[in-house]
Amino acid sequence: MGMNFIGLIEALTEDLSNEWQHLHFYLYHASAVQGLHAAEYREFLTEAAQGEMKHIQNFLDRMFGLRHPQPYRPATKAFAPQTEPNAILRGAIELESQVIENFAARLTGLETFEGNPLIAAYFKVFYEKQLEDSYEDREKMQRMLDATP
C-alpha cells in the first residue's frame, strides 16, 4: 500500500518538526561553541541555522499550498548541548543523517502515491531537493570533522 494524502500530511508535519529541531540545534550551538576556532564555527553554525529557516519556510509553504496548514508545533526531540566543535559536528551529522533517511523513505512512498499524480510528481521533486540539501550539508560537515585533529 502506498502513501496517501493523509500520509503525506503526516510526513510533512514530522519533517517540519525535524527542521525546527535543526534550527534550534544550530542556533544554540552557534552561541555555545568554544575553542580556538569558535568564531569560524559560530559563523558556520549561524549560516546553517539560516538554511534551516529556509527549509522550515519550504515545508510550511507546501502545507499551506495543500490547504492543510498545521498549527505551530515546536521541535519535539531534544538534543544534547555541546560546546566542543567536533562534538557539535557529530551531533549535526547525526541529525542530517536521520532526515536523509526520512527523505529517502518519503521518495519511496511517493512512488506508489494513492492520489493525484501531480501531487506525487511535485513532492518527488520537493523531497529530492530536500534530500540533496541535507546530503550535501552532511557531506560538508563530515569533511570538516575529518580535517580536525
Number of strands: 0
- At CATH level 3, the topology is Ferritin
What is the ordering of alpha helices and beta strands? Answer: HHHH
Any low-confidence stretches, pLDDT <50, length ≥5?
A: none
The overall number of domains is: 1
Class computed from helices, strands and strand pairing? mainly alpha
Mean pLDDT reading: 93
Percent in strands: under 5%
Note the main sheet.
none
Question: How large is the radius of gyration?
Answer: 16 Å
Principal-axis shape equals: elongated
CATH architecture: Up-down Bundle
**Helix residue percentage:** over 70%
Terminal Cα span: 48 Å
CATH class identity = Mainly Alpha
Number of helices: 4
For this structure, what is the CATH homologous superfamily?
Ferritin, core subunit, four-helix bundle
Write up what this structure looks like.
The protein has helices spanning 5-32, 38-65, 85-110, 117-146. It has a single domain (5-146), classed as Ferritin, core subunit, four-helix bundle (Ferritin). Helix 1 runs antiparallel to helix 2 (38-65), helix 1 (5-32) runs antiparallel to helix 3 and helix 3 runs antiparallel to helix 4. It is elongated and about 55 Å long. With 149 residues, it is an all-alpha fold. The chain starts with a helix and ends with a helix.
